[in-house]
Amino acid sequence: MTAALIAGSPPQRARRIALGQVIGFWLITALAAAAAAVLFEFSPKVVGLLGLVPLAIGLHGLLRLRGRDRGAMVTRRAVGSGFIAALVVTLSAGGDNVAAYIPLFRVGGAARVAVIVGVFALGEVVVSALALLAGGHPRARGAMTRLGAVAVPVLLCCIGVLILLEARTFSLV
Length: 173
Hints:
Blueprint: H1 2-7, H2 14-38, H3 44-47, H4 52-65, H5 83-92, H6 95-106, H7 110-134, H8 138-166
Helix pairs in contact: 2-5, 2-6, 2-7, 4-8, 6-8
């Protein structure tokens, strides 16, 4: 997403777009951590049911890809021109992240959650830096778009199953 925003904007705004992406992602992570703290009163097995959300979103995404040719896998997103546009697009597209992170944070324990958040934050900075490097190159942007169309739903499915397993939610069935 960040590479597409960068590629569709004037070069002098690229860093502001990347910063908007990073701050939006950090806000999403903070929201999920706060919600996980509120859900502390609930059994991890029950909270683990939220793992069905990213699993369902991922399965839906994979089903939508079925039968499409490679050219049709490109997802069109709104192209912003600066910090606020990138921040708003990131927040509006982050609902699936919040749904995945809440149960992940809830069943993780404080030390584990700190490591997860640190890895997420560092990963977001690295991905945004790579998007800055690749955002202006049409071939690189096309490759990222094609890979993202498949990788994101698969990753969501994996996160959903991991949450269900970690929370031992399958024992409720």
